[in-house]
Amino acid sequence: MDTASEQARASLDAAERARRQVAEEIGLPRGYWWAMAAGWLVLGVCGAVLPWLAGIAAGLFGAGHAIFASRLLSGRRRTQQIQVSASIAGRRIPVIVVGMVLGLVAVTIPVALALDADGADHASIWAGGLVAVVVGFGGPDILRVLRGWVRA
Question: Under DSSP, is residue 85 helix (H, G, I), strand (E, B) or coil?
């Protein structure tokens, strides 16, 4: 009788470890982050070259993000090979990503204003480029840290 209960406990523990491992792998594909980085850089260029176009470009970027990311923001379809249930993926990932985007905006604007006040040419390009590098190279890591903070 003890052997059966020990085997059952070991099986349940193994299943729980596997579930946690899959949940930790949930995220957004690398291409998502590089597309967001490219969009950020385009917004910076628009702000420097044609400032009136920056508002339109920001609106298009937001609409594109909403359209293309809505499927990915659930975190359930990171690859073609896996589709995770919503209970494992969690419902906080979209909130985390939107908060992350707002945080990046909150960084971009003051950096651009500070660079402009310092007399830098094309401050919006430099600020957009800085955030683009952070998003492109660090997006998945930032998301992983934020998920840990909110236990998502």
Answer: coil
- Give residues with Cβ within 8 angstroms of 134, minimum separation 6: 104, 142
CB 27 within 8 A of CB 74: no
Distance of CA 17 to the CA centre of its chain: 25
Q: How far apart are CA 19 and CA 23, in angstroms?
A: 6
Q: Residue 24 and residue 123: Cα distance in Å, rounded?
A: 38
Question: In this predicted model, what pLDDT tens digit does every residue of 60-77 receive, in sequence order?
Answer: 887 777 777 666 665 555
CB 58 within 8 A of CB 47: no
Look up tokens 């499927």; give the residue.
71
Tell which residue, 152, 149, 150, 135, has the closest CA to residue 30: 135
Name the stretches of the chain with pLDDT < 70.
1-3, 21-27, 69-91, 152
Give the C-alpha separation, 134 to 101, whole Å.
12
